[in-house]
Amino acid sequence: MTLLFTCFCIATVVQAQWLVANIAGRNTLNLNGSWAVIVDPFNAGESNWKPIWKDQHATGAHDFFEYAFDNTITLQVPGDWNSQRNDLVYYEGTVWYKKTFQYQPQPGQHSFLCFGGANYIADVYCNGQKAGSHEGGFTPFQFDVTHLLKAGENEVIVRVNNQRRADAIPALNYDWWNYGGITRDVDLVTTPGNYIQDYFIQLQKNDTSHIAGWVQVAGSNGPQKVSIHIPDLHIHYTTQTNAAGRANISIAAHPALWSPEHPHLYTVQIATATDTVAEAIGFRTIAVKGTEIELNGQPIFLRGINIHEQIPQRAGRAYSETDAAMLLGWAKELGCNFVRLTHYPHNEHMVRMADKMGILLWEEIPLWQGIQFSNPVILAKANRLLDEMIERDKNRSAIILWSLSNETTPAESRDTTLSAMAAHARALDPTRLITSAFNHVAYKGNTVTIDDSLSKILDVVGVNEYIGWYTPWPAKPEAMVWKNPFNKPLIMSEFGGEALYGHHGSKDTASSWSEEYQEQLYKNQVAMFKNIPFLCGTTPWVLADFRSPSRLQPVYQQGWNRKGLLSDKGYKKKAWYIMRVFYEEKEQNNFN
Ligand code: GCB
């Protein structure tokens, strides 16, 4: 009986699918703002006798319900719940959200409910019926709610649960705050019945004279004409979809190439007989040649920084265009042409802003230490997260690297899973490079050898090394030698140490938690970098101090990871200036 019931439940869950690309370019009703919420730590609202998703109201004299969305508390969407209410700072559990809105569905049109992200599991109900479920805190999800909407007032109820799980991605422990809630934008998108579902429009791999890719049209029952207009390139291209609604494209073109110095974006218009959509797209190539990374055929040094999706002054998740401008503005001020979006896909404003500002990006899924690689569900979950990340961001020229993971422990099950994921990502997007950050290197005397077998499957190797912090210096920094048997480009994807802003002490003692110690550590790192010929980029850990429940030092940390070059108020620590000068030198040497 139990088994039958379970099977029935699984069969009826609608998993999120990628239904409509480029939400910003569509006809949308934005559902951001104030949502009524019920905090439900024991998941009482899921039980059969008072399911909250039904949003029932008492009618008879002896009727009552032990919940109500009316006269209850509200939370702002987008936004995490932890930074909005003191009683939810450490909360890990369920919150029910409700929003009502007016809507007039038109015959023949589609309506899609689109969430930028909700951490970690979201169950979505529309007018008392399940629209679908989604697992994963940092990627978008969408449901077709055409059949659930009605004319007049409509309601959406979302159950969000951020309990940590052993078989989740990320798993049980990680070094950042488990911000819960509907943390990103919510939109109701309306399209014609026959509409442009998705498209991939970039330069062909290693070819600056062809724009290539595909357009996917949904709801058509036969071939139909698709046109692509790029007015500034005088391109008016037409083609036809096949029986599956797909049109492959290949257009001879000589666009001005997108680069950090000239982040040129073209307006690209895609049209069918019934639908049209436009967005700004840049064109560039990215490739590996020996141990170099080449942007538009020229070697580039990636002057980078790691950024968490957090505004330190607010101690909360970043979610807006203004937040993106602040975080990426800091990166520019440091002299960066590159950002590693750690450790998960950030909100879409970050990626679009980077496209406009000319900042190259590394984007990764939150496959962070402690993952259950021997559990077969992990590959399926990881591939779905790759799908969702790549589906959303594949047209952003800023993105050059898809990252599969961070700091995984070498094991056969790990290698098999990550190899399958690499193949999956390459099939989805053959134009970009695949990377991963790992911390398994071999130390012998003054020599560090990159020996993790994961390097075999990557285009670019990312090494997190904490020499001077978690690992003592085995030799003088300038005497360190790095060996690269895999002969691939290396990005030093993490390095750094902790310092409390404004706290001064010994430059030689880590436990001084002083700006001087962190500054000296950066001087030493830079001295070492100058002798690594195959080093193609550096991303210090990390732009700004960030909240972490495992940082328990009561005087200096107080629940914050203090490895920021900026403090929790955004003030520059001494180490900031060491990186700034290093990047100035790199820029002046024309070593981009
Ligand atoms: C790492 C992790 C990063 C941590 C950092 C640290 O290696 O990749 O997520 O926050 O070290 O500060 O220990």
The main sheet comes to: 9 strands, parallel
Question: What's the domain count?
Answer: 3
Radius of gyration equals: 25 Å
**Uncertain residue segments:** 1-12
| Average pLDDT | 95
Instruction: Provide the β-strand percentage band.
Output: 25-35%
The CATH first-level class of the largest domain comes to: Alpha Beta
Helix tally equals: 7
Could you say which structural class the secondary elements and strand pairing correspond to? Answer: alpha/beta
CATH superfamily of the largest domain: Glycosidases
Textual characterization of the structure:
The structure is a single chain. By secondary structure, the chain is α/β, with parallel strands linked by helices. The protein has three domains: 31-192, Jelly Rolls, CATH 2.60.120; 195-283, Immunoglobulin-like (Sandwich); 288-591, Alpha-Beta Barrel (TIM Barrel), CATH 3.20.20.80. The protein is 17% helix and 32% strand. It is built from seven helices and 36 strands. The protein has a nine-stranded parallel beta sheet. Strand 16 and strand 17 (276-281) form a beta hairpin. The chain is globular, with a radius of gyration of 25 Å. The structure holds (2S,3S,4S,5R)-3,4,5-trihydroxy-6-oxo-oxane-2-carboxylic acid. (2S,3S,4S,5R)-3,4,5-trihydroxy-6-oxo-oxane-2-carboxylic acid is lined by residues 175, 343, 406-407, 439, 464, 494, 541, 561, 563.
